[in-house]
Amino acid sequence: MTKRFCSCLLIYLLAFICTSGFANESETAKTVQITKADNLAADSRLSKDGPSVIILYIAAPDCPFCKKLEREVLIPFIKSGDYKNKAILRKINWHSSESIIDFNGEESTPINILKSYDLKITPTLLFLDSEGNEVYERSIGYSGNEFFWYYLDVAITKSNLAIANH
To answer: In terms of residue numbers, what domain contains 93?
Structure first.
């Protein structure tokens, strides 16, 4: 009877630990979101204080590669906190009709901002200075995170060097 009780207790504890871990993981995933680009002029001021590169992430809600990039790279990027003082990450929804304040402080639309950068594919990451100029080669598309973390780290480092030397 004691063996049976211990076995049941062990199974209960394992089940509790496993479900608690999954619950915390899903809660964290729900609370961590990529900040929507709604005021690029304000982001510009933050960038100047850094100096930090502004990473403008262009996504579409129906893009499976965008969802994969967010899940595998961008959400962990935010969670890590390693780039908090090195980069400002903002997201633009390709299909959104909400207005955005552009780098000049004027009201614009996502489609007008995307046209100004001649964007045609999602996901795309733009590496911008405080004036909205591209300071490093854009990242277009996403297939997996094997080398993407390295590319992202290099892009942030070189972008910030270009901004500091400008």
So the answer is: 33-164
